[in-house]
User: What shape does this take?
Amino acid sequence: MASMNRRRFVGTSAAALGVAGLRLPVWAQIANGGTSAAFPTLLGVDYYPDQTPESLWEEDARRISESGLTNVRIAEFAWALMEPAQGKFDFAWLQRSVDILHRNNIGVILGTPSAAPPPWLSAKYPEILEVNEKGEKLHPGGRRFTCPTNATYRRLSLIIATEMAKMFAAHPGVIGWQIDNEFTLGSSGRCYCDYCRAGFQNWLRTKYRSLDLVNQTWGTNFWSQHYSDWAQIPVPLPSGGDPNPGLALDYDRYQSYANASFLEEQLAMLRKLCPKHFVTTNNIGIPYDVIDMRELYAKVDFVAFDNYPGFFEMLLREQGQSGSQLSQAVSGMTAMQHDFGRSILRKPFLIMEEQSGKAGQRTFSPQPAKGQVRLWSYQAIAHGAMGINYFRWDTATSGAEEYWHGMLNHDRSKSPAFDEILQTVNELKALGPEFLNSQYQADVALYFDYDCSWAVKIQPGHYKLSYADQVTAWYGAASPSHTGIDLIGPGSDLSLYRIVFAPVVYVLSEAQAEKIRQYVRAGGIFVTNFRLGVKTESSQIIKRPLPGYLADVMGVTVEDYVPIYADNPHLKFGSMLGSADLECGIWTDILKPSTAEVLANYSSGQHSGKAAITANTFGKGKAVYIGADLRPPDLSRVLGTFTASVGVKPPFEVPLGVELTMRRSGNKRWICLLNHTGGAQTINLPGTFKDAVSGESHSGATELPGYGVMVLTT
Ligand code: GLA
Ligand code: ZN
Assistant: This one.
């Protein structure tokens, strides 16, 4: 019953939280959760009492509270302090810290500490250490050096989390849990140890039931790989040749399952012991593909992830990017991670860690410009976040993250963005829970499938072909239309969308093809590109003419597929796209229409004159095949044309570098404008709008300052 309450409470859409409710501290709102309709506002900070002298805890709590912050997240790396020796627990310090925070009306999210086991544990049980893809064992001394399968590590992780839960289940200051920390972060991503090998073999037994079926599915007669015992099945470690692609894809799925089931052990325990608390986990935001995040988050209350746009910028600069292209890449990647996070459970998410200053381990990211931390916060909210925790309160003076700046400097003075963060927090509170819990409606979907991502990594087909890059490029090409994009996967309901963009659907099951068929038949627009339907879900090459299961829907067959290394062919559009002549990138599928109409032909090279882009009317809908890899501006034009053709458009146009998103609740809508450029931009508003932050009215030409933000209501 209690868990029913929590779920209803967390899941319900926004209706007004009573005025009295708004004044309650977050812990009291959570405690009263069964009756509230909107999720309590979480505008907090990540805090490390374990790294702070106890003499400062009271002052910290007072300052956090006076700053208007509602909550902290603590303890996710404090295993060694909570269990200084095996089975010897010490929660007294944490209890004192939580008491102080609670007295100051600060809600507490507790992190379970499995991401960094203490030295006594790895010394006593070295078998918990991860083995990377080269077969090298990781060493203790950092974090995330563990094997997700190892039973000892799982058992000890569950024990410490259970002891924490028992200790804090009834503490009124505790509001929720973060399980572990960033499962997706790791130097190697996946573990290849003997425990994982045994775990993989067991997982295969459950999946296939018969060894014959495994042999048949993977085609193990190739290179004499026939298995006569489950225990012979290897993991993809270096072996003098590439692994069997079917085995390799199953191994990626197994590793995802191992992490998700690791999380689920702690989740089941927390559900039982702490039925009033919410439970989530955090991750690197971008759909970084070592773990299927849809699997990982499937059973938590809401999605949470970490947001470091300045850190992205540093990484892109290291790769040689600069100028306005760089700034668009950073804001685009960040927008995509927010859209992905929101789409996983189709509801508002929490930013568990938000960059609040220069960030980095060995080098600093650029200093956020004035206004940029506020802009990043609003960007998350604009894409559907319901709350934000800033990372972190103070800045560490020891440890690997001394360079990762928090809200306080090393000397505990206010950091450059301190006041800006407070301003943002106050503004977001004033915008209110109805806005923060409102929904985000997208008419456009972008298909992101982990199987495709993993299988393309196993066999890219072209050394430059990356599934993540293709999806990111398609997101970048589609997003300037400001129509709202959900990132969907094989389990998603396609009928919610007017148009579905689906690049490089390399792995396609017959069932998924049927879903796409039904979608198009009923009137949907499905736009895809090369390498469509090449493999079944078992990573077997389809034994039909490409595009395999979708040949009827696309109205074409693929006459040949051609990786491009030099002499990039050109293609020429017919009237639809103004007879433009474009150069192709790394791939061309040569299309032979059966029922499809040709929109563009190759205009040079061996296949000159053959179809490059086609559109097929199928049932009430349309299926578009873009056979050639298009350069970003061309892709943008093509995708934009299809989006416009179905009448999906933003409420009004905005200049390049400005983002527009919309959130809704009932009849209310909030239009968020975000200026990602340093200079002022003029927006031409079609009518009069109210600025929900300043309360002013705007109409016609309206200036949005550099890194400025506006939330408009009508
Ligand atoms: C991640 C982690 C944190 C911390 C920050 C900054 O997102 O979750 O523990 O390491 O980055 O590095
Ligand atoms: Zn392992």
